[in-house]
Specification:
It is a single chain. The protein has 3 helices and 6 strands; from the N terminus they run H-H-E-E-E-H-E-E-E. The longest helix is centred in the N-terminal third of the chain and has 17 residues, at 6-22. Helix 1 crosses helix 2 (28-41). The protein has a 6-stranded mixed β-sheet, sandwiched between helices. By secondary structure, the protein is α+β, with helices and mostly antiparallel strands. It holds the Pfam family PDDEXK_3.
Amino acid sequence: MPENDPLTEKILACAYRVANELGAGFLEKVYENALAHELRKAGLHVEQQHLMEVHYDGIIVGTYAVDLLVERRILIELKACKALDDAHIAQGLNYLKATSQATCLLLNFGKAKVEVRRLMRGPQTFATERHGP
């Protein structure tokens, strides 16, 4: 997915509005609810706490809930911490593995400026990139 994907840019614009209005210091659920509201105001279809099943050898071995699924194609995982780390990136990549989605946005509202990492799944590979305001 190119960096200037209109849907991703619309999502990030909403995230920046939430960050500018609320600032840092709230729990993740506050940012989830605020971002879901902004995305819906922008005319986007949003599912909160979207359940994903993890399959292994033909059986379900786990169930996870991604914070937001936008337009049934972009996963969003929200954090409110000092900085995104390797464990957060691994979580997002695992969400991509567990679904047929190609993009997961990690959004960290725990800093003065929202921190963004875009995780993408290709045919056989995964890529990550920082995306800033």
